[in-house]
Amino acid sequence: MKPTLHYLTIALLAILGIATLASLIWVNYQYSVQNPGGSDFLPRWVGTREFIMKGQSPYSEETTREIQQRFYGRPARPDEDQALFVYPFYSIFVFAPFALIPDFNLARAVWMTVLEVSIILIAIMGISFSRWKLSPAMLGALLAFAILWYYSIRPLINSNASILVGLFIAGAILAIRAEQDSWAGLLLALATIKPQVVALLILFVLIWSVSERRYIIVWSFLGNLALMIAVTSLLIPDWTWQNVRQIFAYPSYTLAGTPGEIFAEWMPGVGRQLGYALTTLLVATLIWEWRAALGKEFRWFLWTAFFTLTATTLVGIRTATENYIVMLPVVILVFAAWDQEWGKFGRGLVVVSYVLLLVGVWWLFLSTLQIGEQPIQHSIMFFPLPVFLIIGLYWIRWWILRPERPLWDQWLKQR
């Protein structure tokens, strides 16, 4: 009876899971039909589909015209988003299953469902990294926050692949902790579909891996990346050059995407110099922290990796707020440290931070929204989360890197 009951339970859970996913796809499909969008997914869906069905390069002028026709119903004007494919060609391995769906709204609905599930998985892995013991109520609040905060909703509505990149990063870090180094290298290689998000993190991971003599991470990453590039180069030999041309064209039709560009808009006289100063400061800090982490155990690696992810958004590499979802585990680490080290006071800080990062950021977005031909996010939205996390990470640095608690902390807990 017991084995039968066990298999019955598994079958019921599987049916429930399939029904839940089907319901999510149906809801997302209705949303997609009623709310045209998915602006980040459409160029990749069309580009991948054009290659699969016609053998046409996703970077070609013909494919770009097809993307723009679906995007605008006409060719794009020079002052508009050109809706280029832009991603590395090997990203078709990620987009191909969705490009095989001929109905864009259905493909978008399935893609959004994958992204929604990915957000939950990122949050769960963030809890695992932090070893945070949560009550059911706190867990529910955290998962609700993970789904509803601005930096999840924005990439979800735009159907941005940054959520999958966040999942790959979280999975790689989890694999590093479990010493599954081959998987770590593979997941880091997959995360390079958005290289600007992970470039500095991967550089740190490779340097740290060498210092720990975990060479499998290095060879797995380099081998898998080389394999993806080689396979796709057999399909389109010069795709790397075509991709580079689109990357260089990208800044000409997009909004400011680095602190220097944003500061230059706000303060034309000294803004760009302030951007250079911030870049110099962050690069120096990264070098210092990377050097300190070499040869250290996982907890030191984790803090430094999370600091690197956060600093990447302000260091001068072009980015977008859609990419900030990758920092969800960083938020969780800060919250977990407050809760574990300061008890009720720490949980109070977590609640206040929920309000600031959920309600406060949404209020900031809505109050600064620029209305033109279409709503445009104000550039101020680039700063709240990275600034909050840099402060938070240095706040908890002692607790993470020095697990033995100082006397004043013990005194505070007794109050």
Structural write-up:
With about 425 residues, the protein is mostly helical. The protein has a domain of about 270 residues. It is about 75% helix and about 0% strand. It has 18 helices and two strands. Strands 1-2 form a two-stranded antiparallel sheet. A hairpin with a 3-residue loop joins strand 1 and strand 2. Helix 2 packs across helix 4, helix 13 runs antiparallel to helix 14 and helix 16 runs antiparallel to helix 17. It is globular. The C terminus is likely disordered.
Cα Rg: 22 Å
Query: Describe the biggest sheet?
Result: 2 strands, antiparallel
- Tally of separate helices: 18
Strand content: under 5%
Instruction: Kindly state the percentage of residues in helix.
Output: over 70%
So what's the overall shape? Answer: globular
Labels describing this entry:
single chain; 415 residues; mainly alpha; two-stranded antiparallel sheet; 18 helices; 2 strands; globular; disordered C terminus
Task: Provide a quick synopsis of the model.
The chain has helices spanning 2-34, 42-54, 61-72, 92-99, 104-130, 136-148, 150-157, 162-177, 181-191, 195-211, 215-235, 239-249, 259-266, 271-293, 298-312, 328-368, 384-401, 407-414; strands at residues 370-371, 375-376. It is an all-alpha fold. The chain has a domain at 140-408.
Please render the helix and strand layout as text:
Blueprint lengths: L1 H33 L7 H13 L6 H12 L19 H8 L4 H27 L5 H13 L1 H8 L4 H16 L3 H11 L3 H17 L3 H21 L3 H11 L9 H8 L4 H23 L4 H15 L15 H41 L1 E2 L3 E2 L7 H18 L5 H8 L1
Antiparallel strand pairs: 1-2
Helix pairs in contact: 1-5, 2-3, 2-4, 5-6, 5-8, 5-16, 8-9, 9-11, 10-11, 10-15, 13-14, 14-15, 15-17, 16-17
